[in-house]
Predict the structure.
Amino acid sequence: MVKAAKPYICDRCKKETPFLEPCDYCSRKICRACEKSAATHSKLLHTIICRDCWGDLHKRRKFKSL
Ligand SMILES: [Zn+2]
Ligand SMILES: [Zn+2]
């Protein structure tokens, strides 16, 4: 029997999640629920912004100008 991979803990909401992505503005690893928006630039490059950084007007403007 293969043991299931340990779930990750989201840096923002502290909940267990099977999927984490780093926020490009505060570098925390966040789950899908904490991810506010994602911009895809190419197949390999994408920018993630969390809900906290989205609330920061300066960071939000930076994200939107991408
Ligand atoms: Zn979370
Ligand atoms: Zn963030």
Summary: The chain has one domain: 8-64.
